[in-house]
Amino acid sequence: MIRTRAAVLAVAAAATFALVPGSASAQKWYEKAVKKVEGRFTPAEAKPGQTVTFTLTVELNEGYHTYPLFQSDKKAEGMVNVIKFPAPDKLIFVGKPEDSKDVVTKEEPDLEIRELRYCPGTAVYTRKVVVSPKAAAGATTVKLASFSLNVCDKNNCFPPKTVPVEAAFKVLEGPAVPVEKAFAEEVEKALSTK
Q1: What is the pTM assigned to this prediction?
Q2: Where does the secretion signal sit in this chain (predicted)?
Q3: For the domain 2-192, what is the CATH superfamily, name and number?
């Protein structure tokens, strides 16, 4: 059901965009709308077993907005950005991703949406990450499996774009430290399936 509604919204957005004068440069919306999409770890180095934070920042030019990862109104559930995290390796993504704090809401009566959540300007998404207790020391680059970005201006929504995102990280030398209790079970499960 979710995919169907998302597909309908995507088709509707693409159809709307196709009717816009001058939309022959459909591929150019990304360059006009997006200042940067950046992934990073804080801190950027840690010992095996330690918890760090992954941050994905989407910075847009004025007049554009994007969406959170989650909508509270079911009729708006297709209006989200979608992050697919990598499989456990040197770093293990744990817990649930957190939405941007810079979310505002509006009503969209034509779409029967009472509360559409969106992010004007900049959106920042975070998720906790545990350095695998079995990770060898050294530098690594972590790539998201995918990041589907939805962007609109005041008149149009553009076709979603898959944007590659990666971030550098360094596993420090030393014996593994105990994993935080809150994430111990998830880490244990991830290590047992490798």
Answers
A1: 0.84
A2: 1-26
A3: Thiol:disulfide interchange protein DsbD, N-terminal domain (2.60.40.1250)
